[in-house]
Amino acid sequence: MSVSPALALELITVSTRILCLNGQTTHRIVVDAELIGRSLGYSISIFPAWGQFVIKLDNLPDLVQEDARISSRIQVLDVAPVGVDINKVSQTSGVLDAVRSGALSVEQALNKLDAISKLSPASHSRFIVMAGVGAAALALIFGVTDLISLLVIFLSASAGAAVRRVVARFSRSLFLQPLVASLLAGLLGAILQKMNFDGPLQFIEVCPCMILVPGVHIINGSLDLARGRISLGMARLTYSGLIVLMICLGLLLGLSLGGQSLAPEVVGHQLPLIFDVLAATLAIAAFGTFFSMPWRDLMVPMCIGAIAHAIRWGVIEMGLDVVTGAAAACFFAGLVATPLAHRLRLPFAAFAFASVVSLMPGVFLFRMSSALIEIYKLGGKSTDAILGQAASDAMSAMMICLAIAFGLIVPKLVLDRYIYDA
Questions:
Q1: What whole-number distance in Å separates Cα of residue 350 and Cα of residue 21?
Q2: Which sign does the torsion angle of CA 369, 373, 379, 381 carry?
Q3: How many other β-carbons are positioned within 10 Å of the β-carbon of residue 103?
Q4: What global pTM score does this model have?
Q5: Residue 23 pLDDT
């Protein structure tokens, strides 16, 4: 297919913008751009950074005679990878495949990409309901079986999701949505504490906040670091860390405004394996909704997540710790999700994270944050128990996050290296 350099560069620029904005891995964006450029007769180089992708277009020397060559063309694309929309990534990848196969002209592809960029995320009703379902499912996994408590968690998370959609309409702030949603959860927790609510208050407070954890950006940042894109990887992880900070701040601020602190730790009931796995699949369905995954595609990560969760259960039942269980579950998920993400043209990080979302250590982060606030309040009167608890929760969260990251990333890097990039 022969097209002008300007048209080829426009196609690559528009598709790169959509893929970057909606959660595609950096490596896949670069590879797809190179492939589509070659199919159009050009050599494409992409230099990614946070807030800016530089795209360079050259002739392929072996396809163009010396007197017909053009000078390099460079496009600076101002874009930051702050969103996740599986549907947009999938459809954009499909358009690029059609261009490469000759089924679509570049002009037709640009029209389709314009329509894709304007697609709406999951509907308000689906988003709000599934936020409640996801938070309640996470509570079930932690052993909350009281129906009233589960209903309260559902309502708290659903209210937070509704507020997030309202905030999104009036503000483009990257951090206001998680801050406001977690603040609402903290205020509700403080009210229930004052009312002496008889239930697992800590889980009622933290489960609506756990659905806000930016796992996709953590995985994408870890992948960038593993591939040597240090500045972009660190920027992604910094962005993720700031979101987590806003969640913790909102939760603790809400509790503080109500004159309370995080409720004491409670021990949940251990569910039978079948109910535990079913709860994990509900949580996966919820996160698939957050990522605007079409219903028809949800069954795939739900099946992967069900098996991964059962693997974690089995490892723990064998007497090993939760970190080992998370690593084993995520290694399986990464091994299966990598080829499926390629085949289905889905963004790996969102697809894989949705499959293992029930393993995220959000509760440890919130406990650590609460303990640090207590240490600040007590000053030199802090007890060894509080210091030890803060350190223990911090290390638990870090080790589980590392287990998830390595478990998902290692099989992907190996399969990409020897199969998909070979």
A1: 13
A2: negative
A3: 11
A4: 0.91
A5: 92
Q: Which two tokens stand for residue 343?
A: 């085949």
Pick from 204, 177, 210, 175: nearest CA to 190: 204
CA 206, CA 142: separation in Å to the nearest integer?
11
Beta carbons within 8 Å of 319's beta carbon, 6+ residues apart = none
Burial (CB count within 10 angstroms: exposed 0-12, middle 13-18, buried 19+), residue 205: buried
Measured CA to CA, the distance from residue 167 to residue 330 in angstroms comes to: 34
Radius of gyration of the chain, Cα coordinates, nearest whole angstrom: 23
Name residue 407's beta-bridge partners. Answer: none
What's at 242, amino acid-wise? L
Residue recorded with tokens 């002009």: 107
8 Å CB contact between 406 and 327: yes
Q: State pLDDT tens for residues 186-208.
A: 999 999 999 999 889 999 999 99
Token reading at 302: 């739900």
Confidence of residue 70 (pLDDT cuts 50, 70, 90): low
Task: Determine contact, residues 189/263, Cβ cutoff 8 Å.
Answer: yes
Instruction: Judge residue 219's burial from the number of C-beta atoms within 10 Å of its C-beta, 0-12 exposed, 13-18 middle, 19 or more buried.
Output: buried
- Name which of 174, 179, 152 is nearest 163 in CA terms: 179
Residues in the chain: 422
Report the C-alpha gap between 65 and 328 in whole angstroms: 54
Exposure string (b/e) for 289-299, b if CB count within 10 Å is 16 or more? Answer: bbbbbeeebbe
Token representation of residue 52: 């800016």
Distance CA 290, CA 34 (A): 30
By the 8 A CB rule, do 53 and 20 touch? yes
How many whole angstroms separate alpha carbon 177 and alpha carbon 266? 28
d(C-alpha 146, C-alpha 255), whole Å = 22
DSSP class of residue 104?
S
The full DSSP string for 30-78 is HHHHHHHHHHTTEEEEEEEETTEEEEEEEE-TTTS-GGGPPPPEEEEE-
Sheet with 42-49: list strands edge to edge. 42-49, 52-59, 73-77
As a whole number of angstroms, the distance between CA 143 and CA 146 comes to 9
CB atoms inside a 10 Å sphere around CB 237? 18
